Amino acid sequence: MRALALNHFAGTFGFALSFPFLSVYCHKILGVSITETGIAFGILGLVRALSQYLGGELADRGSVVRLMSISLFTRSFLFALVALGIYFRIGFYPIILLSFFQTVAGSVHQMASQNAVSILLPDEQKMHGFAVTRAASNIGFAAGPAAGGWLVGYSYVIPFTLTAVLLLVSIVPLMSLNVRGRTAIARTSGEKETLPMSFIVYLFAVFLVASVMAQIITPMSLYLVGMKGIGESNLGWLYALNGLIVGLLQVKMMHVFRAISYLRVMIIGSITYFVGYAALGMQDGLPWYVFTTMLITLGEMLVAPPSVAHAERIAPTHRTGRYLGLVGFSAALGWAFGPTYGSWLLEQTDNSTLAWCIIALPALMSAAIMMILDKKTNIART
Q1: Residue among 277, 311, 278 nearest 205 (CA)
Q2: What is the dihedral of CA 134, 139, 142, 144, to 10 degrees?
Q3: In a 10 Å sphere around its CB, with 0-12 CB exposed, 13-18 middle and 19+ buried, how is residue 189 labelled?
């Protein structure tokens, strides 16, 4: 697990140095409208969704270590091209196109990594394993935006170049990782399988809450920097706060909720998400944005690891990658849909309180669906 944690930290730190500021660069430097930027990042999320499923299928059929290494090398190369594109001012659409390809590589790495946790650890430790890798990622996400927000004040080229370097560095810990898995079983299992209806409904619930989770990157950054004028540096510190809280408290939080079913933890997290984002537009000022960011972060900690662990628990042994890929696909669809409707609502209304309440509403809908699923699960057990 140490190798995976180091891999996640280095890769996420590099990613967080630059990518959260890409939408700001497109809007502020290139002059692209908030709506067009939101649509582009929504399509980027759709690409991520499709590649999540691809990554899950590949993780069931090949070496997860090799998949992670190849995907990280590819991502590094593509981020280097983005840095060059910014330096030579090649424009909005070529940079977004390069971002599409790096997103595919990132999805393959994510699915392979989750499958590695599933293979390496026994059932009683898998929730802890998912929490550890997420905590490592968020420590990187805490440090990255703070440094990136400072660096973009000099040049947007610098953080994207450093991202390319750090993604290469993140491959090094994988060299000590020896993962032997279930690929032989996956290859020889040819029977046709049908997804349970309860899992399909669960995927829809994941999509809904993920559409609210997605607000933190594009709509929230455009709202706080473009509309409220807090500046890129302060935005970076808010992202740093988010990552630091998750990095320090994610594992402990899952330990506190270890006796509660994954679905119930996600219900609490989804409701917390709604409260956090609905509150974002109710007041102005950096202290209020710090408070709402903390609420949003709490929701994130209570939704993200249990959503993966629940899918891993109910998946057939030789189809873990597929189930994890489908959860990733549904979440990424939410991340595609979220920036689009969030950016559009913010641009169409002057009432930020109303806009953020509507933006946060799918989280409540997700909580209601998961309550029904949890109730049916309990009835089935009695």
Answers
A1: 311
A2: -100
A3: middle
Higher pLDDT among residues 260 and 165, named by residue:
165
Q: Evaluate whether residue 184 is within a structural domain.
A: no
Q: Which residue has the higher pLDDT, 205 or 226?
A: 205
How many structural domains does the chain have? 1
Residue 187 lies in a domain: no
Nearest Cα neighbor of 203 from 38, 325, 298 is 325
Q: How many CA atoms lie within 13 A of 312 on its CB side?
A: 25
Whether the CB-CB separation of 342 and 214 falls below 8 Å is answered with yes
The reported pLDDT for the residue numbered 185 is 44
Tens-place pLDDT, residues 240-249: 788 788 878 8
pLDDT at 192: 59
d(CA 279, CA 293): 10
Please give the residue range of the domain that contains residue 331. 2-175+195-381
Q: pLDDT grade, residue 206 (50/70/90)?
A: very high
Taking a C-beta distance cutoff of 8 angstroms, is the pair 35, 344 a contact? yes
Which DSSP letter does residue 317 get? G
pLDDT over 80 (residue 35): no
Tens-place pLDDT, residues 64-98 = 888 899 999 999 999 999 999 999 989 999 999 99
| CATH assignment at residue 292 | 1.20.1250.20
- Tell whether the torsion through CA atoms of 145, 146, 149 and 154 is positive or negative: negative
CB 41 within 8 Å of CB 320: no
Question: What is the 3-state secondary structure of 161-192?
Answer: HHHHHHHHHCCHHHHHCCCCCCHHHHHHCCCC
Cα–Cα distance measured from residue 339 to residue 352, given in angstroms and rounded to the nearest whole number: 16
Helices (H) and strands (E) in the chain, counts: 15, 0
**DSSP string spanning 91-148?**
-HHHHHHHHHHHHHHHHHHHHHHHHHHHHHS-HHHHHHHHHHHHHHHHHHHHHHHHHH
User: What pLDDT is recorded for position 73?
Assistant: 96
382 vs 374: CA distance, rounded Å: 13
